[in-house]
Design goal:
mainly alpha, membrane, about 220 residues
Length: about 220
């Protein structure tokens, strides 16, 4: 991640924002890319003053919402066979077991799987295509998608931006205790969402060989 941040720092700010939106957007369409690594790297880069945090967060939210919407359209058109083809192409990320778990999450939690899925690597990639393939009503999908994308993008960006600025300030004063408190306080603001998303994922795990649930059509 340090290498990614160093590479990004040599680029013009506009190019960085476009990279953030592009990588996260393509990831949200169902193609495994390091979207979260790019967001974390650019948020920490913003703490150094090279780029603006609001533009990083805005680019990330835009990429997440638009990418998920394209993924939804692709999934609705291609259906489950498309997801199975993606699984064969990316077996380490989107294999049959991953798809089964994601389907169980949608079957059990509905559009909440879209919102909390933004905080889980597997569902962050599959939420859009899977919602389309399972015929989740688009208006409900869009609401959950936009809410999750905004909370994830702005929450992650400003959390890391604040921690980075606090670290820079306190490290100058050699206040290690203050730095530790700042990190703990910042991480606490997203702990509940991470915990809730993890429990959702664990609760919907599918045993080997089990058939996934099917969502109904509207």
């Amino acid at each position: 991640m340090v290498d990614v941040q160093h590479w990004l720092s040599a680029l013009p700010p506009l190019v960085i924002y476009l990279i953030v939106a592009g990588v996260i957007g393509v990831e949200s369409m169902g193609i495994p890319l390091p979207g979260e690594i790019v967001l974390v790297s650019t948020a920490l880069l913003a703490a150094t003053g090279v780029i603006e945090p609001e533009w990083v967060a805005g680019a990330a939210a835009f990429g997440a919402i638009v990418g998920d919407s394209f993924g939804y359209a692709i999934g609705r058109r291609g259906g489950r066979p498309l997801l199975e083809r993606l699984g064969r192409r990316f077996p380490r990320h989107l294999g049959p077991a991953h798809l089964a778990r994601a389907e169980q999450s949608f079957a059990r939690h509905g559009v909440w799987a879209v919102f909390f899925g933004r905080f889980v690597a597997l569902l962050r990639i599959l939420a859009g295509p899977l919602a389309g393939a399972l015929r989740v009503p688009y208006r409900r999908f869009l609401l959950a998608n936009a809410a999750g994308g905004l909370v994830w993008a702005f929450g992650t960006t400003y959390l890391l931006f604040s921690v980075g600025r606090a670290a820079e300030h306190w490290l100058k004063d050699i206040s290690w205790a203050g730095l530790a408190l700042a990190v703990l306080a910042g991480l606490g603001s997203t702990w509940w969402l991470r915990r809730r998303a993890r429990r959702m994922s664990e609760a919907t795990a599918v045993p080997a060989g089990a058939e996934p649930l099917r969502a109904g059509t509207d």
